[in-house]
Design a protein that fits this description.
CATH superfamily: Aldolase class I
Oligomer: single chain
Order of helices and strands: EHHEHEHH
Low-confidence stretches: 90-98
Number of helices: 5
Structural class: mainly alpha
Helix content: 40-55%
CATH architecture: Alpha-Beta Barrel
Distance between the termini: 34 Å
Mean pLDDT: 81
Number of domains: 1
CATH class: Alpha Beta
Length: 109
């Protein structure tokens, strides 16, 4: 099985001079949901308050697709992403925290 993760909302802003306002991000997320990508990567909520607000809005829209958030392998980043995306789903939080722990243990050497 192949899953499609679209990172337009995050990677698109990596292009010099490109910035998506919140309403543009919501419009893009609406189209991605309609098109049927499997995962909509909403952004990296730790970067700016504006991106945080956009990720939260996208996560709360009730899309048919999975909404994801980018984060570094830092507990604060992972916790923020989980708080915005999956409130009240401790099984998912435990799984992602275990992945975070494994990655950070590896980086320590």
């Amino acid at each position: 099985m192949v899953w499609v993760l679209d990172s337009t909302l995050r990677e698109g802003e990596q292009t010099p001079g490109v910035y998506f306002d919140k309403h543009i991000k919501l419009a893009i997320a609406n189209l991605l949901d309609e098109v049927g990508v499997d995962i909509i990567e909403a952004g990296h909520p730790m970067v700016t308050p504006e991106i945080h607000a956009a990720v939260k809005s996208i996560a709360q829209k009730g899309y048919k697709r999975i909404v994801g958030a980018h984060s570094r392998s830092l507990k604060a980043d992972v916790d923020l992403a989980l708080e915005l995306l999956q409130p009240g789903k401790p099984h998912l939080q435990q799984t992602i925290y275990k992945v975070y722990r494994c990655a950070s243990d590896f980086l320590k050497g």
